[in-house]
Amino acid sequence: MMKLEILGSGCTKCKRMYDNVNEAVKKADLQAEVIKVEDLSEIVSRGILMTPSLFKDGEEVVAGRVPTVNEIIEILKGA
Prior knowledge:
By secondary structure, the chain is α+β, with helices and mostly antiparallel strands. It has helices at about 10-25, 40-45, 70-75; strands at about 1-5, 30-35, 55, 60-65. Helix 1 (about 10-25) packs across helix 3.
């Protein structure tokens, strides 16, 4: 199962990315665990400079912006 993490402080953009990721997983019929990481010390320890940030299986795939649902689907499917 894929592990997706949304790192951010809980701002509006972070919440929108979380919603978009959940919708993309559902639309693409993927098996994924979606986790929201709002702990500042963890975000800093990973060296994140811009939020929101999306990690797929421990690798950062998006930083500093909110991708569309379709864009997230492409990222998750490895397109």
